[in-house]
Design brief:
Strand order of the largest sheet: 4-5-9-8-6-7-11
Largest sheet: 7 strands, mixed
Number of strands: 23
Radius of gyration: 25 Å
Distance between the termini: 63 Å
Structural class: alpha/beta
Number of helices: 18
Length: 537
């Protein structure tokens, strides 16, 4: 590895950032407190220096769309349009910059010049862990990301194909300073995305997202100079630790006797999920069970359940599970082929944890999309029901603030802090299957004894104009239509209109006590979106 030193303080901004040091040097000289105080150790103290014109042209892009890069779940878009190798390179560089500063600044603040020699010598920057789903574009984006990260002075461990929660787990259990998952979750094959995690294994907060984006857009006038370039290593063996953590969260042979169908969506769980379920004793039938970047999520997985339903009924299975492309969410199907969504999973798992005394405050955290029937049933048992904005990062933040142990989304992102820090489809499926096995009942019976959902209908209206999507609330005719619907339903139902954070859609959701009212108002409001935002007559 060739070492580099930073541009000297006061040097011209046109000077090169990286200047080769002695490549034959084996050990760095002992550091003295005076060196620290004069700012000559940027590895310890991340001194910020001006960006030169050359650096700005290399690491910044002022031609990006004005709308924010980061959406509900990281950066996501069509590959070759928004998401390119050039953008991934810049995301990698500025992610490395920001994550390095997060590590270095606290250590610099704790430094005591009186006995600083040893402390300074022990400073280490951990790696950033990269994982990916099976999309054809994921390899290209991984290489570009790694190039940017290593240029920022950060080592990279690329674990290859793995679920998103696998990256989060490895970051949280190693000395890594962060992670990036390359996936567009449930989106079609032509899309991809970048989900960024901090050192705790949780998705980085909005403030850090904004820091990264400002760097990419050239809004940062300064940056932290690189002392030593990072290295990139392929570390697929690391994912074994995540697999072991899944197995150890359940008792041995806890799924013995269960016949389960898995729809693996040609995605990130295609290799790992069958391995774990079989190791715990389940009899499996697997659908779409190899990584295939051309078919990921196409008419399969958690957003297309018909094939799973048919397979469960056809094979006489006890239940089935469908994962999305990166396996951070899961939906279930009972032996009759009926869908069991995230609301039911939360209710059943929450009830089980409450019986065990493992649900503080009897609290479940979910989102505005959760069914009203779920809310009223849980509250009727004396439980606390907390709603957040859509997105598992919002659920996670609220859980952190409340000290809650269980939360998630109707779409199947389930977080249980007894076992992890992020949504995990495999973990959720395993524990729901174990719950079913220990109960001695069918999943259909457990659902029937939980709550009755209010009729709920979701319509997606495609709105290509991003500005129209993000500022839909400024459309007076649409707001008037929503107000009219809310006034008519009163407390017998509710309406939610929102832009998707991952696709060019406006989502219109209506739920009420009777299906006829739901159908009417959903159609009426979806038509209002088409007329006033899309321009269809």
């Amino acid at each position: 590895m060739v070492s580099f030193v930073s541009r000297p303080q006061g040097a011209s901004s046109g000077a090169s950032v990286l200047q080769p040091a002695n490549p034959f040097s084996v050990a760095e000289p002992m550091l003295k407190p005076a060196d620290i105080l004069t700012g000559l150790i940027p590895r310890l103290i991340p001194e910020l220096i001006p960006l030169s014109d050359q650096e700005r042209s290399q690491w910044c892009d002022r031609t990006l769309p004005a709308n924010p890069l980061f959406g509900t779940d990281g950066i996501r878009g069509c590959v070759g349009e928004l998401l390119t190798a050039a953008l991934a390179l810049k995301v990698g560089f500025w992610t490395g910059q920001i994550l390095r500063q997060q590590v270095l600044r606290p250590q610099a603040q704790q430094f005591d010049p009186a006995d600083g020699t040893a402390a300074a010598c022990e400073v280490h920057i951990g790696p950033v862990i990269i994982g990916q789903d099976s999309r054809s574009s994921s390899d290209m984006l991984a290489m570009a990301l790694a190039a940017g990260l290593t240029a920022a002075g950060v080592d990279v461990w690329n674990v290859g194909l793995c679920p998103t929660p696998g990256v989060a787990y490895l970051v949280s259990t190693t000395h890594a300073i962060g992670g990036v998952m390359i996936s567009a979750s449930h989106n079609p094959p032509q899309d991809n995305g970048l989900k960024i995690f901090g050192a705790a294994g949780t998705k980085i907060p909005k403030a850090l997202q904004q820091d990264i984006e400002q760097g990419i857009r050239g809004a940062h006038a300064v940056f932290s100079p690189v002392v030593q370039l990072g290295r990139s290593e392929h570390r697929p063996e690391l994912i074994e630790a995540y697999v072991l953590s899944l197995r150890e969260s359940l008792s041995v042979d806890s799924l013995q006797g269960l016949k389960i169908v898995l729809d693996l969506a040609w995605g990130a769980s295609a290799v790992l999920a069958p391995m774990v379920f079989r190791a715990l004793g389940a009899e499996l039938i697997c659908l779409h069970d190899r990584p295939d970047g051309q078919q990921i999520n196409v008419n399969c997985g958690s957003t297309h359940l018909h094939r799973l339903q048919e397979a469960v009924r056809g094979h006489g299975a006890d239940l089935g599970f469908a994962f999305d492309g990166d396996a951070d969410r899961v939906l279930a199907v009972d032996h009759q082929g009926q869908v069991v969504d995230g609301d039911y999973i939360l209710y059943l798992w929450g009830s089980h944890l409450r019986e065990l005394g493992q649900l503080p405050g009897n609290t479940i955290v979910t989102t505005v999309m959760a069914n009203l029937g779920f809310e009223r049933a849980w509250q009727a048992t004396g439980g606390q029901f907390v709603r957040t904005a859509v997105g598992d990062q919002h659920v996670q933040a609220e859980m952190d603030g409340l000290g809650a142990m269980l939360g998630g989304e109707q779409s199947g992102h389930i977080l249980c802090r007894h076992y992890g820090l992020t949504g995990d489809g495999l973990l959720t499926a395993l524990h729901l299957a174990e719950l079913l096995q220990t109960s001695g009942s069918s999943l259909a019976d457990l659902v029937a004894g939980s709550f009755k959902t209010y009729p709920q209908l979701l319509r997606n209206v495609r709105v290509e104009d991003r500005d129209q999507r993000l500022h839909w609330q400024k459309c007076a005719p649409l707001m008037a239509a929503i107000a009219s619907a809310e006034a008519e339903m009163g407390d017998r139902g509710r309406i939610l209109v929102r832009p998707s954070g991952t696709e060019p859609l406006i989502r219109v959701m209506v739920e009420a006590e009777d299906a006829e009212r739901v159908e009417y108002w959903t159609g009426h409001l979806a038509e209002a979106v088409e007329v006033h935002l899309v321009g269809r007559s």
